[in-house]
Amino acid sequence: GGKPMKNTINIAILIFLFQLYLAFTIVVLLLDNREPAETFAWIFLFVIMPGFGFVIYLVFGRNWRRTYDQKGRMSQGAAKSLVTLFKPLKEVQEDKSKSLDHSENRTEEDLSTLLYNNSHALLTTRNKVEIFHEGKDKFNLLKQDLLSAKKFIHMEYFIWRSNDDLGREIRDILIKKANEGVEVRILYDFSGCFFTLSTFYIHKLRKNNIKIYPFFNYLSPFKWHTFNYRNHRKIVVIDGEIGYTGGMNLGQEYIDGGKKFDFWRDTHLRIEGEGVSILQAVFAIDWHNTTSKDNMMDEKYYPKIVCEDDSYDLVPIQFPTSGFDSQWASILHAYFSMITMAHKNIYITSPYFVPEPSMLTALKTAAMRGVEVIVLITGVPDQKVPYWAAYSYFEELLKAGVRIFHYKKGFLHSKVFSIDGHVSSIGTANLDIRSFKLNYEINAVIYSKEVTKEVDNQFQIDLSHSKELVLSDLNNLSVMVRLRNSLVRLISPIL
Asked: How many CB atoms lie under 10 A from the CB of residue 298?
């Protein structure tokens, strides 16, 4: 009778330790004051993965913002609000009615005010914009612009591939320019480039006086807690006069689809004019917070802004930025507001669709009040888990009147949002919780009928290469597939 008694005691001790572990982890979690859905998602992980779940939480889920804010970093809005040369833009911001299409519903002015208040995104008005819908067009022109650089080249990418044709070509151009005396600075995301950017490539650049640093090197003993915070931005600034931003990283697959895909569909912007100085300011913040080197607030990096300059079109643009240390989830606010402000149509393109609860409600509400709402996501996924999670949201959206399409021509990586033929957003932020709350992102919100018309025309072309999802498609899914999708949805707040 001794052995059963001993087993019973051991089981009782294990149950007690498990309850103690749960109590401790839940208290730690509650003190973070997260959304209830996110809190329950972590508790679910703690239960099904005792011990290891808490380790995952410390690396991926812990809110390190309070600790992080004490380290003398420059805030996301600092350069944009403090640099004196932006004073003319502040005057434009204060008198938006002169710069924006003052339509009856005040959509543009209200959105502009929101983005200034939540991320210090100054309104720039004198801009020339070119949109790229395919990688080969973007990179052909980028290479020309790099070769034309006279003073400096600043580049920031989430993924930078060193071992393909494009990576080698860009490397040779940058070395050539550095040897001509052009300042070259590169930031890359440590996570995004972990398997794509070789040490040999980096050393070769550094040997040629090119400054290149990893944003958040979490292998450093003092930075391991930043493992889950990625710099997902894509920014290039050349001489303070030409800027690029959008969805495309630096890799051959953006041109030809690479080994995995027949075609890669993406959207990127080339900008000349006032907006370039804002892109430079965002780069300056990231550079300072990574390296603590160079005075990137020096006026030589920012051409003098003259708001009466008629050499550029009147294309008003704001650049909301967000990161885990931002006070507000500004890009989430932007998307949510665009949905609630729309009267005619909402067109959304995103490779991933894991919506934040408020956005899900806003989309359903918009469709039910008669707005045409179309969501286009990739039908050829590169990551299965968010693709499965998306399916769990589709039924309620379809029943509310939202139309959903899967792009079938290749991999769809664009992050584009447009409403009512007036306002469009092109940027780096996917429509998922990671982009809204964890990653460093930047979007260009453009107040232009002409630009939005081009965006909408491309959207219709993309729909012609897509398959519409209907309720019967969901009903035909097996019970096991539906269960898998629902389980993945449980952890979607922490993906």
From this structure: 10
pLDDT tens-digit profile, the chain (495 residues): 566 676 777 777 777 776 776 677 677 666 666 666 666 666 666 666 676 666 666 555 555 555 555 455 556 555 554 455 676 777 767 776 667 765 555 788 899 999 999 988 999 999 999 999 999 999 999 999 999 999 999 999 999 999 999 999 999 999 999 999 999 999 999 989 999 999 999 999 999 999 999 986 544 544 544 556 789 999 999 999 999 999 999 999 999 999 999 999 999 999 999 999 999 999 998 898 888 777 787 888 988 766 565 666 789 999 999 987 788 889 999 999 999 999 999 999 999 999 988 999 999 999 999 999 999 999 998 888 889 999 999 999 999 999 999 999 999 999 999 999 999 999 999 998 888 888 999 999 999 999 999 999 999 999 999 999 999 999 999 999 998 988 888 766 555
The answer for residues whose C-beta is within 8 angstroms of residue 34's C-beta and 6 or more apart is 42, 63
Tell me whether residue 102 is one of the annotated catalytic residues: no
415 is catalytic: yes
Which of the residues 145, 420, 432, 462 is marked catalytic?
Answer: 420
Asked about 165 being catalytic, the answer comes back as no
CB 255 within 8 A of CB 264: yes
* The one-letter amino acid at 306: V
Q: Are 348 and 372 in contact (CB under 8 A)?
A: no
Residue 491 in contact with residue 432, Cβ under 8 Å? no
d(CA 459, CA 469): 17
Instruction: Out of 145, 189, 239, 462, pick the active-site residue.
Output: 239
Active site residue 413: yes
- Choice among 80, 232, 288, 422 that is catalytic: 232
**pTM, rounded to two decimals:** 0.85
Distance CA 138, CA 135 (A): 5
Active-site residue, from 96, 268, 288, 413: 413
Give the active site residue among 133, 138, 154, 234: 234
